[in-house]
Amino acid sequence: MAIASTNTIRLPWKVATSSRFFVEAEPILEALLEDYLKSLSARVPDSLKPTIQAIVLGGGYGRGEGGIFHEGKNPPRLYNDLDFFVFTDTPSAPALKNWAQAEAHSGKQTLGIDVDFKCLPLKDLMQGKGSMMFYDLIHGHIIAYGDPHFLTAYREHYPQGRLNEDEAPRLLWNRGTGLYFAKQAIQQKKDSGFVQKNHAKLKLALGDSLTVISRYYSPSVRARHATLFEIPLPHPWGEHVLALHREGVAFKLYPRHEVLSWKALEIENRALAEVWAQVFLHVEGERLKRPFVSLNDYATYPHRLVPNRPWKLNIAIAGRDLLKRHACIRPIYDYPRAGLFRALAALLSGKIEGQKTAANSFFPTPKTPEALQTAYRKGWEHYG
Predict the structure, then answer these.
(1) CA torsion, points 159, 151, 165, 380, in degrees to nearest 10?
(2) What is the pLDDT of residue 18?
(3) Would strands 77-78 and 68-69 be described as parallel, antiparallel, or unpaired?
(4) Per-residue pLDDT for 168 more than 60?
(5) What is d(CA 343, CA 330) in angstroms, rounded to the nearest whole number?
(6) What is the set of domains in the chain, with CATH numbers?
(7) Residue 362: which pLDDT band, with cuts at 50, 70 and 90?
């Protein structure tokens, strides 16, 4: 199938060639990021240089699709996190971790956004073949320190559009979790910006997951949107997902926080949960080669949701978690993330009380919905 380029479809954003970080020129912010990258490279201590192969900027800014936040008459500012990958022989070395932590702190003060440094061994690039995180990094990045062609040799191991089959449900799980946390924030009437950001991320993920299972995934959010015009979309909700994806792309490139009532946010959250359920069940039905008629049907599925993980290894992981954290995610014969998939399905369906599968997803068994929410958050933070 020939996929249309972003130049052949009318899009609600500009396509520029003059910026490394954004889809259109923003000289002040570009200079800010350029200066930061240069100073970061200069601040790598001599004692660490022998162990660091490269420091790579990934994420939206590394791919030239970073967000530019506009708020009223205030000057535009950065919005998304700045995600750095530090490839090193010694990812756990205290000196490196201390340096990365200090750089993250100073970077936030300089740029006004969160700056994250992931210290990884080089072998992860080969072991992570098929993962969305490394695929995006390989095909869209800026080398902040090291050989400018450091990642070029790895492109052949990450062929265009080819991701592992479990990347689509994993993406929907992570963004669905964000939707669930947004629901809690709405109930507490806390941080409207956090809610709108997570709603926008979910809108993107719905369409992005369809490009993953169609084998036409791209690291460019604009290219993914163009792809959705070309691939068959499931009936009857496919066109709605396309419209939501358009909104998500616009927010990613030009994020804005609107003045919305908590009631309006609650209505949108509920509506997005319904669409999430349709897309998630479709994606999981495609992956597991069986239909799911409801979230409850999925949550009570009697077989393993991650069949490619040996059940003996899963039981060993459960035993380890019991020893280290005094709790494990059930069912223990499945990979722990599968239990979290089931729990999120129950949480977003609203069927918590009396939902045996959700209540027994964790050990010890939560006694209240609040305890279940706490247990879920801890599990997601560890296995997310």
Answers:
(1) -170
(2) 60
(3) antiparallel
(4) yes
(5) 10
(6) 27-157 (3.30.460.10), 167-383 (no CATH)
(7) very low
